[in-house]
Known about the structure:
Blueprint: E1 14-18, H1 25-32, E2 57-60, H2 72-77, H3 86-99, H4 115-127, E3 133-137, H5 145-162, E4 165-169, H6 173-179, E5 182-186, E6 193-198, H7 211-239
Parallel strand pairs: 1-4, 1-5, 2-3, 3-4
Antiparallel strand pairs: 5-6
Helix pairs in contact: 3-4, 4-5, 6-7
Amino acid sequence: MLRGISLTALPGEVMVLVGPSGCGKSTLLGIMGGMLAPSAGVVRCAGAVPADCLNALTYVFQDFSLLPWRTVAGNVGLVLEDRLSRKACAERVAEVLSLTGLAEFAGAWPRQLSGGMRQRVGIARALAVWPACLLLDEPLSALDAQTRDLLLDEFAALITAAGTTTVYVTHNLGEAVRLGHQIVVLSRRPGEVRDVVRVDRPLAGRRADDPALMALEQRLWGMIRDDAAVAVRDRIVDAG
Length: 240
């Protein structure tokens, strides 16, 4: 459940949604992407969609959802079939694989890739349609901490290079401060906007051990700590 939400994702920026478990982060993302209908209110998309955009709003989920019988190039090209000519499709796939550092793995099968590499393929597939807005629902949560930390730097570089407006849901505050231009802090249910924190620094070069980012992470945790404790207590009661 959400209440009184009013937000604007700015062009070319990353909006990160954080808050206690069950506060409605994924629900809000689903409403933004048109997958869920709000009981009240509207979602507006402003501005012109780029001429080469094949899908204005594109999701990346926690599940990599790669087809095991297709190569890396085949999985990325899946979203382009019947939309571009064979030549244009091959060119777009090659471009996206180069952008995501996957060019040398074009012929590899998903089973041959690590979890981090498979997730990168999922991101490449999403970027292949040149989305006007990229919606990511905890895309790194299934990965181990070391892989996630390495991918954060790559994520920042990809988002910067693609220049795509991005809305990113995470429960990990370290990810939030590394990737967000504006970080939206939601309260526990019914989810309301408690604060919107801006980080006016380039994504490239943000480090996990940066004192300013560590301080911001602690500030965010201070906002949601009590709500998170209540959410855990409620889940224990429900389970009982």
